[in-house]
Amino acid sequence: MIPDSTDKPEPPARRHALSSLWRLRSYLRPYRYRMLAMLLLAGASTAASLLVPRMIQSVIDGPIAGGDLTGLWLFGLAVGVLGIAEGVTIWLRRYIQARVALSLEADMRTDLYAHMQRLHAGFHDRWQTGQLLARATSDLGSMRRFLAWGLIFGLMSIVTYVAVVVQLLFMHLWLGLVVAASAVPLFIVARNFARNFIKASRNVQDQQGEVAAIAEQAAQGIRVIKAFGRSPHMQAKFDAEAGTLRDLSIGKLNISARSWSLFTVIPNATLAVVLVGGAAAVASETLTLGALVAFVTLQLMLIWPIEALGWIIANGNEAMTAADRVKDVFDTEPAITDRPSAVPVDRAKSKGLVRFEKVTFTYEETGTPVLKDVDLEVRPGETLAIAGATGSGKTTLVSLIPRLYDVSSGRITIDGVDIRDITLASLRTVVSTAFEDPTLFSMSVRENLTLGRSDATDADIEEALSVAQADFVHELPFGLDTRVGEQGLSLSGGQRQRLALARAVLVRPAVLVLDDPLSALDVHTEELVERALASVLTGTTALLVVHRPSTVALADRVALLADGGIAAIGTHSELLESTPAYAAVLSAESEEVNA
Ligand SMILES: Nc1ncnc2c1ncn2[C@@H]1O[C@H](COP(=O)(O)OP(=O)(O)OP(=O)(O)O)[C@@H](O)[C@H]1O
């Protein structure tokens, strides 16, 4: 049973966004030489472009002022060569940059996916899928843009700014100081911009996650929504969230618009001062005409780095926010891992003696124990049914055996070994599970069946299919190769349940955990499956969550779960005689099922 998925964790308060981004620097390491090459190439193209104004100055003050045009072709040639050099270095840098950027994003995405896979079931209970998707897509995109583009352009903008301003100071100290001083208001605007944008950016990104979550839930639950005629309600909910996203995005754009206009006005106002002051300097012969033209051309070259500075700050902020959000996931340690002392167990040698010793379990979010001091033993080869009122903790109890969740206290052993001392990979070959709500993946029937045992032969698959009475797969358009799941052929609930059962049986586990595996089957099919399943269960330890008396027939003994503990245990007939609550639970459940 999964809690309301809106119970997502609160995003952590804005903390060290910069340090979050800094921590991801290890992703840059494999690309450090290529990034260095990118920087050198960017430096070369900037140097080439900075030389052109000085060439113009030489032409104006030399051949033009002197009226001697003999050496002019040399200047033309030099400017042409510089232009070509600039073009080639830009092309090379972009060529490298595109590959580095996309590989970097792919590396981060692969790691994030792998980490999400390692995270325990409790994490996925708490996080909305949409929020995780937003982190794996748009957030990683923002980080890629900054690490591979923003960072290089940022450095280049600063280098260009310094190089130009130093040249300007040498050309004319006072006018150079005016241009240098214009950096101060620019810096203040940039800093304020950063401060406001970082907040707006995070809000927009969080809201994007909300919208993605609603869209994802609506797509998954489309049948329920239609069946209950809730489309207008869902639409209204979506509209409200999408409206909030629009407003937040407009707010964010307003912040950039205000700052960008200042980013443009300040250099242009400076240019006006330089033109007037420069003309006066030329008139008083403290500056040559060529130097003034070069001065203005160089100063105009500053507009791009300054504008880029605004963009890079915004991009950097977005990347920091994104890194912070991605870090929320990366920083969640998988709660269920191999202990250092864990050893693998051999499925073939496992007897399948399962024991619960004083097991207490509490879901993290709720705080109230679902299971309290449960002691239970399932002998090798025995089939134990778990019965109990709805919400009594049956699914929880069986989920603890494959360690989907870890006990809060006490321990569970298989053949006397604490399951936490067994490596997870081998535990999950010893224990195989079929859940009440069977998940099939968007892949072929064969791939779905062999998820737990990739080396299964066709004969093994046939055997498992016949136990689960799932021979219908042969009638599918491409038999075992038919694609099922979300993007494939839709199967009925009963068909999916039988495939999930076949998948669990195919593993040939020492311990088989079946959570109400026949609930979606009609009475006739249920009888056929039970008959076939009985032969598998003879040599396997099995825990069977049951709701109806017919399934109880498969079990050697039944445990009745109530108030977080085992209220009674014995054969079906013993419990029927001794425990009125047992009969009540079964009849209530079967009435519910029949209804
Ligand atoms: N992932 C979860 N996080 C928090 N609480 C949970 C979670 N899953 C189940 N619970 C709670 O734990 C209790 C036991 O749930 P569980 O699903 O184990 O009962 P159950 O006996 O299998 O119920 P049913 O017969 O209806 O399937 C319930 O109160 C339920 O709300």
From TrEMBL:
The lineage of its organism: Bacteria, Bacillati, Actinomycetota, Actinomycetes, Glycomycetales. Residues 354-588 form the ABC transporter domain. It is a multi-pass membrane protein. Belongs to the ABC transporter superfamily. Siderophore-Fe(3+) uptake transporter (SIUT) (TC 3.A.1.21) family. SMART domains: AAA. This is ATP-binding cassette subfamily B protein. Residues 36-318 form the ABC transmembrane type-1 domain. The chain crosses the membrane at residues 33-52, 72-92, 146-166, 172-194, 260-283, 289-314. It is found in: Cell inner membrane. Keywords: ATP-binding, Cell inner membrane, Cell membrane, Membrane, Nucleotide-binding, Transmembrane, Transmembrane helix, Transport. PANTHER family: ATP-BINDING CASSETTE SUB-FAMILY B MEMBER 10, MITOCHONDRIAL, ATP-DEPENDENT PERMEASE MDL1, MITOCHONDRIAL. Its main location: membrane. GO terms for cellular component: plasma membrane. One of its GO terms (molecular function) is ATP hydrolysis activity.
